[in-house]
Amino acid sequence: MRKNLFILLLIFPLIASAQLKIQVGGFVFENGEKFKVVKNEGVSAQELFNRCKNTLLGMTINLDNMSSENEGQMIVVSGKSSGDCYYKYMGQTVLSDIDYTIRIQFKDGRYRIDAPSISKVTSGVVPIKFEAGGRMKDGFGLAFKKDGSPRLGDLILSIEQYFNSIYESIEKGIASGVDNDW
């Protein structure tokens, strides 16, 4: 009983602080948009850019490529989750890999973080395909039923938790001003 309570206490903050939700059309933030603007009054775009870059470098996610297309204006992160998301299939837990891109843009006093664009979700048993921009195609019936209700609720929840933890770390890192100057 204590073990179950402990697990619930660990999971509850992730569920309670969910920023992103997966719907039939892809990811949306709590405001219903596919992006979120976060204000940091009095902080320049360059400083926000540097804080974000330092935060990303310190995170324990698999970054295939982090490129700043415009120094001080935008960071595009291409990453891959390796077995961080899962679902149950015929009584077994199936680990899934996700290839994704996140774009973050900076202006003085604020930054805009876009919902992740998933290019591919794969697993050893059932391939689940996503179209660029997070719109499901071909594998639509695997994650959602035709009426839009979730079929693989545990996969959807684990993907939401994975990306919410990344976004929460990015936001906290930028807000706290992570310094990589040792």
What does this structure look like?
This protein is an alpha+beta fold. Helices cover 31% and strands 38% of the residues. It contains four helices and ten strands. The protein has helices at 2-16, 45-58, 140-143, 153-176; strands at 20-23, 26-29, 35-39, 63-70, 74-89, 92-107, 110-114, 117-123, 130-131, 135-136. A hairpin with a 2-residue loop joins strand 5 and strand 6. The termini are far apart. The model is unreliable at 1-18 and 131-141 (pLDDT under 50).
Write a brief caption for the model.
The protein has 182 residues and is of the alpha+beta class.
How would you summarize the topology of this molecule?
Blueprint lengths: L1 H15 L3 E4 L2 E4 L5 E5 L5 H14 L4 E8 L3 E16 L2 E16 L2 E5 L2 E7 L6 E2 L3 E2 L3 H4 L9 H24 L6
Antiparallel strand pairs: 1-2, 3-7, 4-5, 5-6, 6-7, 6-8, 9-10
Helix content: 25-40%
Oligomerization category of the chains in this entry: single chain
**What low-confidence regions span 5 or more consecutive residues with pLDDT below 50?**
1-18, 131-141
The first-to-last residue Cα distance is: 45 Å
Give the biggest sheet: 6 strands, antiparallel
What is the approximate shape?
A: elongated
Number of E strands: 10
Percent of residues in β-strands: 35-45%
The structure class reads alpha+beta
- Count of DSSP H/I helices: 4
